[in-house]
Amino acid sequence: MDAFLRALPDVAYVVEPAGRILAVNEGPWRRFGEVNGNGPWTDPATATGRSVFEGIADEATRAWYRALHDRLATTERGVAFHYRCDGPGVERDMLMTVTPLRREARVVALLYQSILLAERQRLPASFLRRSAAPPAAGEPLVAVCSFCNRVRVPADDEDAPWRRVEDYYRAGGTDDVGVTHGICAECLARELPPLG
To answer: What number of CA atoms fall less than 13 Å from residue 6's CA on the CB side?
Structure first.
């Protein structure tokens, strides 16, 4: 399995049906974690053996991925879907593929691959630092959509609009905020991706 993963150029990891990470392709995994400040998840040795769902910051996104994972753990066909994974000075368009790995008639693991499709530089959005540390007590929170990377301020106001990062700054947004994650109404309304 390790040799297979090392041959893949992008971030890839194998997860058992119960959700435990069995293996990651170390080079791309480590580089992507360092660029995005993924804390303990940056080290492949620390990530391996943990539940893949522990690395998902918010309950809505965790529930979406768990439903997808559970559905794929009982089928032959995989899925692919687009998402964004922005950093402070860059916008990234990504493709996630999830493929069931079968032995005889049952799924023994799922192969997740996160493929970079396009990357564009932009003015820095320093609040997007992907810090593993929780926000400071009393620090205002900005919610970032886990799929499109639009933001909502304040994070806990369900009626607040989700905006592009540039619009957040135009409306007076600052970098002195903590970051949490969620799923905007538009992305939440989309169904799980169809089986391929």
So the answer is: 3
Q: Report pLDDT for 154.
A: 87
Multiple choice CATH, 2-123, 1.10.10.60, 3.40.50.10090, 3.30.450.20, 2.60.200.30: 3.30.450.20
Residues facing 116 on adjacent strands: 94
Torsion sign (Cα): 98, 116, 151, 187: negative
pLDDT given at position 135: 66
Q: What is the block-wise mean pLDDT of the chain (196 residues), using blocks of 10 residues?
A: 86 94 90 71 86 87 91 88 88 94 92 95 78 66 91 89 91 86 86 65
Nearest to 15 by CA among 104, 112, 113, 103: 112
Separation CA 177–CA 173 (nearest Å): 9
Give buried/exposed letters for 52-72 (b at 16+ CB in 10 A, else e). beebbbbebbbebbbebbeeb
Compute CA distances 55 → 40, 66, 94, whole Å.
10, 12, 18
Q: What is the pLDDT of residue 38?
A: 62
Partners of 181 in the β-ladder: 144
> Residue 78: CB partners within 8 Å, gap ≥ 6?
72, 97, 98, 99, 100, 195, 196
